[in-house]
């Protein structure tokens, strides 16, 4: 889950209370945001996404309206083209939002973002 936040302190308290471990915060110049992944065994990972100081990025419109919002879900794939094709064959309309690019948070693995009409924003993380 991708959680957009103005400040991450309260979200970290909440997640730690649920048994999550907080990862190290990193700045991703490709996405122009600060990122931190929080993980717990048997629970979905939560990606904390905050605006980078002085940088205009993808959270501008979200954070004008909300202090925090789960705004995307992330899915992992072995084959990006096959995954997109399968969704289209299922009759889904897929609109590219952010093209494929390396992500620092995931060790340089590629991510891309799409709007799935009738579902919302998804991130696709490619396996190494």
Question: What structural keywords apply?
Answer:
single chain; about 130 residues; alpha+beta; 2,3-Dihydroxybiphenyl 1,2-Dioxygenase, domain 1; nine-stranded mixed beta sheet; 3 helices
The stretches of 5 or more residues where confidence is low (pLDDT under 50) are none
DSSP E strands, number = 9
Structural class: alpha+beta
Largest sheet: 9 strands, mixed
CATH architectural arrangement: Roll
State mean pLDDT (0 to 100 scale).
95
Backbone shape:
globular
% residues in beta strands:
35-45%
**How many DSSP H or I helices?**
3
Q: What is the CATH first-level class name? A: Alpha Beta
Descriptive notes:
The protein is an alpha+beta fold. It contains 3 helices and 9 strands; from the N terminus they run βαββββαβαβββ. Strands 1, 2, 3, 4, 5, 6, 7, 8 and 9 form a 9-stranded mixed sheet that branches. The mean pLDDT is 95.
């Amino acid at each position: 889950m991708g959680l957009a936040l103005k400040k991450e302190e309260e979200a970290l308290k909440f997640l730690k209370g649920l048994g999550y471990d907080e990862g190290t915060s990193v700045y991703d110049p490709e996405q122009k945001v600060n990122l931190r992944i929080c993980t717990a065994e048997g629970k979905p990972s939560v990606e904390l996404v905050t605006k980078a100081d002085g940088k205009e990025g993808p959270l501008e419109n979200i954070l004008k309206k909300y202090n925090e919002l789960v705004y995307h879900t992330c899915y992992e794939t072995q084959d990006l083209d096959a995954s997109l094709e399968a969704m289209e064959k299922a009759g889904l309309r897929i609109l590219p939002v952010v093209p494929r690019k390396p992500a620092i948070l995931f060790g340089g693995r590629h991510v891309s973002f799409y709007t799935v009409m009738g579902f919302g924003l998804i991130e696709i993380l490619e396996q190494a």
